[in-house]
Amino acid sequence: MNDNRIPEDESASAFVYQECLPYLRQSQNLDGGWGFLAGKDSRVEPTAWATLALSEHCQGNEIQDALSKAIGFFQNSQLADGSWAASPSQLRGSWVTSLACWALLASGTETENLTAGLRWLQEDRPGDSGRWWRMLRRLATNQNISRQSDSYYGWSWTPGTASWVEPTSYALLVLRSLPEAALSIEMQSRIRIAKQMLYDRMCPGGGWNCGNPMVYGVAGEPQVTPTAFALLALLESSSRSEIEESLNWLKKNSVTVASPTSNALTDIVLHVFGRQVATPAHALSHNRAQDDISWSIPEAGWVALSLSSKQRWLNLKCSSVRL
Amino acid sequence: MPRTAPPLLPPFSRPPSRVAIRRVTSYQSDLSTLLYETVSEFALPVRGRTVLLKPNFVGSDPLGMMNTHPALIAASRETFLRLGAERVLIADGPAMDRDTRAIIESVHLREYVGPLSRVFVDLNIDDVERTVLRTRASRLRELYLPKTLLAADFVVSLPKLKTHHWAGVTLSLKNMFGAVPGGCYGWPKNILHWAGIDRAILDINAAIRPNFAIVDGIIGMEGNGPIQGTLKRCGTVICGDDPVAVDATCARVMGLRPDKIKHISRAATLLGHMQAEKIQQIGDTIDQTCNPFAVLEAFQYLRQKPAARPPNVN
Questions:
Q1: pLDDT at A165 (0 to 100)
Q2: pLDDT score recorded for residue B307
Q3: How far apart (Å, rounded) are the C-alpha atoms in residues B129 and B155?
Q4: Which of B163, B184, B161 is nearest to A86 (CA)?
Q5: B170-205: burial string, b at 16+ Cβ within 10 Å, e else
Q6: Distance from C-alpha of A155 to C-alpha of A191, rounded to nearest angstrom
Q7: Complex confidence, ipTM
């Protein structure tokens, strides 16, 4: 991984420690969680992104204290089956389970909560993975609407629905922390199938959208967020031509987008793939000062992560769990 | 205090609905005056209330055929403020892309509406409240819906006039999919597709009961909508206080049969009128504005039969 943040190091560091991290710490709720926006109800997804950002830049007791409270939130909000729900009163777990596991791992918490979460991910199968569903698809008259292979599947947003790019990428990113020896043959196979699904769902010409690369013969337009997470999930396959095409799309697209999310996620990917980042820290800082909309917690988290020169959150190792 | 949703009534026990069709040549027209004059005719109870405008934001749209145009959103906002609304919010939860900020920047919403900090709400990441559904058309039974939307006194669906490759058309009823938060159900909100799009549309609209609809038909999309279709200049704005009647009228303007569009005919059982004889037309007529939209092969059955031609006397 090239350390191509070095020329920006001082302004990046100042922006992270003087703006992003204080904003995150001040936005933490009393229950240890974060809402999608400051002052809103605690939810697992923003808490995960805030935890990942604070863990990445963990310095001093205040951040450590915030992380301890966040771990408490994850422990208290876990459902009996090991999963986490997207909102506190929902009774079924969802994609946010991957993010909660990732955040626990980043904060150095290899407890039974993490094990139970990863086991749920292992057991959770999307609705399009079953033989019955595939048989119905083959019989359907409208099967030519979208071009995708029914042989591949990953993870869904909510239980029992279809596989999509982002939740599959999140699951792959957290499962990557486990050494191959800790994964059963079945789990290794499932990860391979999920990666195949990502390649299958890539838009013609590179990049990903939510998971519809082609509808009625028309190529889908890629989007930044799914492209970024799919590329991160496929980081080990950086020599494949699909990755090169997608990186080129991301780089080319970066000149036209103007949002903290897209800027930050683009930069994270360009950084870890050894490319020159698109948005320098001083530009992010300037944009925030001019902004008439408060940053969401995930936005602030992604910006803070994008300004890390180490990107430790993408190289976590889990030693205590076997699937 | 949250608004009280109107009762669910079968068509025979509800009064006729009114739908206004206005011809508009472009987004540079005086939309504010036109909308104010049109909406005023409905004598809507918005004075002192919080009005929530729900446009259709989908993605980057350089040709202006995919998203509700910001000029119409701004004119709608101005109209409801002139009618005495205390607050007019603009709120949406785009279904396919979680970066709502990138979408609203790409449509230049701020340039038309002004500062967005107290005006725009991203419904995907709003706080949510468990809502038991009033109808059981789909197997959803309950949804977690945005608190801002549930707390609004008056909800206006503000869609684009488009065809849709799953639902046939996407108008004011289908537009309410955007009220279901991605923060709970993901991007896309695939749970709604698995529950059956047509049935889920009824369940969501029965739960939210949008009070009014204003459809952006100045430029629409035909063919492989709602994203990958082609630009269609239709030159109309269609609005009314019965979203089913508005959508049925839009379908007729598009040269399609509303009774063949499953979610419209299903919604007509409880939410509003679909039959032309139960809809009082204001402004321009369907005949004056009908501009048939191209549809995919799979939706050819939605087309209205061409009117019988007079015999050729030569």
A1: 97
A2: 54
A3: 17
A4: B184
A5: bbbbbbbbbbbbbbbbbbbbbbbebbbbbbbbbbbb
A6: 10
A7: 0.93
Cα(A233)–Cα(A198) distance, integer angstroms: 9
Between A and B, how many CB-CB pairs are < 8 A?
113
Nearest CA in chain B to A128: B194
CA distance A284 to chain B (A): 15
Spell out the residues 6+ positions from residue B218 whose beta carbon is closer than 8 angstroms to its own.
B24, B25, B26, B27, B69, B72, B233, B234, B235, B236, B237
Q: Is A120 helix (H, G, I), strand (E, B) or coil?
A: helix
- For tokens 């001082």, the residue is A10
B190/A258 Cβ within 8 A: no
CA distance A149 to chain B (A): 18
- Distance of alpha carbon B179 from alpha carbon B93, whole angstroms: 6
Give the phi and the psi of residue B77 in degrees, each rounded to 5: -65, -45
In this prediction, residue A217 carries a pLDDT of 77
Residue A6 DSSP symbol? G
Confidence check: pLDDT of A206 > 80? yes
In angstroms, the CA A112 to CA B95 distance is 35
Tokens of A169: 């990428």
d(CA B164, CA B167): 5
pLDDT of residue A147: 67
Contact between chains at B186 and A145 (C-beta distance less than 8 A): no
Q: What are phi and psi of B17, to 5 degrees?
A: -100, 160
Closest B-chain CA to A264: B99
- Out of A43, A161, A258, whose CB is closest to B191? A161
Does residue B97 have a pLDDT over 80? yes
What span, in angstroms and rounded, lies between the C-alpha atoms of A276 and A288?
22
- Dihedral (Cα; B29, B32, B34, B39), 10-degree rounding: 150
Contact B280/B21 with Cβ under 8 angstroms? no
* Residue B69, C-beta contacts closer than 8 angstroms, at least 6 positions apart: B27, B107, B160, B216, B218, B219
Rounded to 5°, the CA angle A288-A289-A292 comes to 75
Report helix, strand or coil for B256. Answer: strand
Q: What is the mean pLDDT of residues A260-265?
A: 93
Q: Work out the number of other CB atoms within 10 angstroms of the CB of residue B6.
A: 11
CA distance A278 to A25: 27
Q: Residue A315 corresponds to which tokens in the numbers above?
A: 């190289």
Q: What is the pLDDT of residues A84-109, one digit of tens each?
A: 999 988 999 999 999 999 999 999 88
pLDDT at A7: 44
CB count within 10 Å of CB A189 equals 11
- Tokens at residue A84, please? 């986490």
CA nearest A249: which of A202, A290, A295? A202
Calculate how close chain A gets to B85, using CA atoms only, in Å.
23
pTM of the model: 0.94
The percent of residues above 70 in pLDDT, for chain B, comes to 96
Chain A CB contacts of B60 under 8 Å are 221
